[in-house]
Amino acid sequence: MVKKFLYSQKVAPYVFVLPFVLVFLIFWVYPLASSFGMSFQKVTLGQEAAWIGVDNYEKLMGDGIFLKAVVNSAIYMVLTLVILIPFPMLFAVLINNKLMWAREFFKSSFFFPALTSVVVAGTIFRLMFGEMEGSLINSFLGLFGVEPIKFLKGQTTGFIALLALATWRWTGVNMLYFLSGLKNIPDEYYEAASIDGASPIQRFMKITMPLLKPTTIYVLTISIYAGLAMFIESMMLWNGNNSPKNIGLTIVGYLYRQGIEKNNLGYAAAVGIVLLVITMVINLTQLAFTGMFKKEEEA
Amino acid sequence: MKKKGLIVLLILTMATWLWGCGKASTTAGGETSVLDSGAGDSATELSYWTFVELHGQHFEKMLGKWNAANPDRQIKLNVTVMPYDDMHNKLSIAVQTGVGAPDIADIELGKFPDFLAGTPQLVELNDVIDPYRDTIVKSRIDLYSKDGVNYGIPTHVGASVAFYNTEILEEAGVDYKTIETWDDFEKAGIQVYEKTGKYMGTADTSATWQTSQLLAQQGADFTDDAGNPIVNSDAMVKALTVLKDLQDNNVLTTIAGGQPDTEEAYGEFNAGNYATAFMPLWQMSRYTNYMKDLSGKIAIAPIPVIEKGMPRSVGGGGTGTVVTKTAKDIELAKEFLAFAKLSEDANIEIWNTLGFDPVNMDVWEMKDVTHNPDNQFVQYFVNNPFDVLAEIKDEIQLIKSTSASPTINNVLCTVTLNEIFEDGKDIKQALDDAQAQIEQELK
Hints:
The complex is a heterodimer of chains A (299) and B (443). Chain A is mainly α and 299 residues long.
């Protein structure tokens, strides 16, 4: 009986899919539903939550700091897209080139930062971008006669530090995605193009870019999500969730501040729901534009 | 056969992984150590969370005394030290869910009101405080109370004082003993800057110690009598104008870390880049622990005032130790806590081990305790802190802690003080903005 059940072609697929479905239901759908409910409540430590309708959302609309967090997250997301898609793609193409020397070395050294913990990396970057004369970046700038800069106290300079951290950490990962995409492009296309007299730039624009599209869409999608959900980098860079003038505050940072630091879980849930809506809208629009929802044959 | 082996391997891997998880979650992160201090096998094990490692050392001493005095009610104390934010966040989640909270925990003053929201999930401590009530400073208990119920036991008074680096001052020809008002301080500071190129002190951007001191001098507070925020009051404008004026004259400047009690600032002070810190008395332990190069150079004095005759000190910071409602043995935890923090012995140890000004002011008068030549704090500083405390004893003001306090503190320390001292924003404007933001958040 058991054997028959396990070997049944109808049942087996469901058995294999079951772990995912369970994980999805328990760790995704249930928390999502419960935070949706919580966003209409006032939750106090260890006590019965009270239903307060849309009060949390109303308050959120007039909340300047939340707006600041949304703007910060959006700017961070856009800037990471600008940096972390073209450059890794370029590096991947270079490394994939047969004329390139020490390819494996570059591959692993680009990827290496992704293996370090954000906590360690953030702490080191905080020290590097310290405001004292003796900090790494300032002593380097000092060689050119530049006065010490208070990097982590200014909006622009703070973002430079934040983006430096993100670039250092994620370039290698995105590069690997592109590398695997490149491996799937048959050499014959390039050979044929060469015979027809296409220049390297033409080959890149007409063959590499279009055929990398699925990889690019994937990287774009996860980068949008990662950009909007960024939190730990900021928290480690400023040694806590409260950066001066909130220059490093992100949406998730605000969620953490309200929910965990101020014990206002209902309000934090509302922040989370808004973040979900923003991310979904941006990602779905982007996916629709890039043709992900068209039928297989048409794509 | 091969397949079976693979499956077994997989299951084993998963099991190990799960077991690993389970193990990790039983310790709450941070460093845990079990203190038994002579406790027998029948001792009750209580857990204690703190964010200050030194507090654990104090409890260790008091635990030895408790176990010797109460052979039938011995205690083993399981101490977990975690970083400040971490500990408070974990504690609030534990209290929130009713699972995993320690029996005893330290809660810092700035976070305390959050734990008093609604019906506090902490145990009432009035009955164990009562025997000691006459001996301790009432206002320090009130900080951790709600509607007449005491939920936390204080550690110190935290009287604010000035810490002067006498080496720098001598180099500039300044005598700190002559500084009584902020005008005196400004003159001295200008002299220090001209002669040495060093700054007299810090303009704090990430803490409100200075602001509190200047408010208290004027008999003002961050909140009104009902506990509502009034951060754009005239007194507040006056306080920040005094500080801003000092900054404009190169007497004060901002510091890495934003205030004297941060790692970056310890380094700056230790290197002799700043001559003064205005901090609660517990800053002494930061000097002895993190600024060893300054040993024998730091003098303690009352803080300057706006006008002579104003009160010269205010209680700053504080830690209330609490018993949670989920504690294993509430009665035992309560009694031990009172014994470890309120008894005369405990107050003497709080000075000896931690270098704090204990809440039992009788201890302040015990010359053999306060002037003990073997005491590391007595050895480190130029003058004896208790001589200064005796001078300002009746002038120590209180800044109230209300449910609005965490929000007020957060807005001032992340936004407002930075705007004023880093960006030079108009003081009144910055404070009006802060008031609006705080009111919005408290809605």
